[in-house]
Fold this sequence. Notes:
The chain contains 3 helices and 3 strands; from the N terminus they run ααβββα. It is α+β, with helices and mostly antiparallel strands. Strands 1-2-3 form a 3-stranded antiparallel β-sheet. It comes from Brettanomyces naardenensis (Yeast).
Amino acid sequence: MDLENRLFKIAGNLTTFNMELNSLKLTYNQDLKRLDELEDELSGLKNSFGLENSDDAVERAKIIKLKLYESTGLKLDPERREVLVLNKSANKTTVLKVNDNYSDYFISNYIWANI
Length: 115
């Protein structure tokens, strides 16, 4: 009798585990399908913004930064390592030669003082 109870209990546990396994497989397949949908959506968004690859995104970010700087009165010349600062209210232009001796703190303070 004890053996029959144990076999019945094992069969019940096996059925429960089998049902849980099927449920996990179903959830896994649904998650894979959702992942594919999200990747397609991301790809579509990248294409709609013209960002086919990460290099394009970096270049666009640089262009946006340069346009922002120019709108505040700054012109950057990376070849000469200069920043041209235009103060529109005082109608004055100053040039800062950027070298490694200047800290970022000094450069930003200089620019803000002369804008």
